[in-house]
Every structure is written in structure tokens, then in C-alpha cells.
Amino acid sequence: MKREIVITADGSKTIHLPELEEQYHSKHGAINEAKHVFIKSGLHHVLDKNNPNIIHILEIGLGTGLNAFITFLEAEQNNLSVDYVGVEAYPVSIEEAMLMKYPEALLVKNRESDFERMHQSMWEQPAKINSNFNLTKRKQFFVDIIDQNQYDLIYFDAFGARVQPELWTSEIFKKMYDALRIKGVLVTYAAKGSVRRAMLEVGFKVERLPGPPGKREMLRATKNDINDC
Predict the structure, then answer these.
(1) pLDDT digits 0-9 by tens, 57-108
(2) Backbone angles phi, psi at 214, to 5 degrees
């Protein structure tokens, strides 16, 4: 499938798929979306609520590695240990990833070697990117995920329901629910009613939050403690 590199509204780049009329990140700003949805509404929320020394994160749709790289920078800044698992069915090439120039866009050009190391790490094998950040990349279809009670936070960054509705079903969100620890959190840029209903169906407590630039709302879902049900 043809891929084109395009510049989003905040000056950062993403990959556009003309055949699907879909892109890896919001055209309204790739970095702005990542920081708002996954860092502010996800990572910072979990840190403020639980104050952990180590956090286990699962990303659904590793893509260009933008969310992982920003999380890496956050871990270092906050002296937080992160165990990060990124699942991707169709990996982006190292060459494509480096063309994104995310270290430069994030004003940390001196960390380009870390971003490159993330993409050079072997699939299916844990890699220590630095003392704060361990990364495991898994080439896997989301329907095949069977993790149980492992994660504090899920970044759900799959392609939109318009092009891949099968990734936004109660079947997939049941897998996400099972993969989270009690009171674990899932965040996504999506806010469709069908997505919210699928989350509620499998047991999540769901909040509508203000969305990133270009979107009115997004969703945050929390795995209920048995005493909350």
C-alpha cells in the first residue's frame, strides 16, 4: 500500500495512506495529538492517581514510534521506569521512521540516536533503550493479544473505525480489559458512540474528555475494581 509523508498542522510529520484516506496521526497535529491524548490524558493521569515508580504500558498501534518516543522522554524527565510493549501488525520501516524527524520536531535533536535505537531494536525481544525505558516490539494482530493483568495503561492508537471497524469492537476491548490490571486505564483519540458502548459492554468505566486539536472529544476507560461494580 502506498505511503506518503505529509506535514500536519503543528509542523510535525505523519504517514498518509491515500488508498484508505487515512493517516497515522491527526492532520491537525501529530505531536499535539500524542501529547494531549496519550501523555496528558493517559500517562500523567495514571502518575497523578497512583504515583508509581514503574509503569507498564501497552500501545495498540506502535506505528511511527511517536507515542513511545514521547513517553521515553517523559520517563527520563520524571525519573520514572517504563516497561513499554508496542504491538504492530504492519511495521513501519526504519527509513520511514527516521524521515519523521520527531527528535527535531520535539526540540531534542540530540536524542535522535535513542529514537533510532527504538526502531533498530529486534522484534519480539526486550530492548533496554536507557536506564528508564525498556521496549518490547511485537509484530502481532490485535485480535491475537492474550495478555492478562499486565498493564497499568494502554494507548489505543489503531486506525479509525471508518477504515478498520473490526479493531473497535467489544471483542477487542475485552482483550484490552483483560490485559489491564485493576484500575488500569485505556486512552484513545476516538469518541464514537459505538466505541464507548463496546467499552461499557466489557466492563469499563468510560469518561468523555475534551479532545485534541480538531476533535471535540476523546475517551478514557478505566478497569473497575470488583468493589466498584
Answers:
(1) 999 999 999 999 999 999 999 999 999 999 999 999 999 999 999 999 999 9
(2) 90, -10
Joined together, the cell numbers standing for residue 11 give: 509542523
How many CA atoms does the CB half-sphere of 106 hold within 13 Å? 23
Per-residue pLDDT tens over the stretch 126-163: 999 999 999 999 999 999 999 999 999 999 999 998 98
Tell me the pTM.
0.95
Nearest to 145 by CA among 122, 178, 186: 178
If we measure between CA atoms, which residue out of 213, 163, 158, 164 comes closest to residue 190?
Answer: 158
Q: How many whole angstroms separate alpha carbon 15 and alpha carbon 34?
A: 15
Task: Name the amino acid, one letter, at 111.
Answer: R
Residue 193: HSE in the Cβ half-sphere, 13 Å Cα cutoff: 0
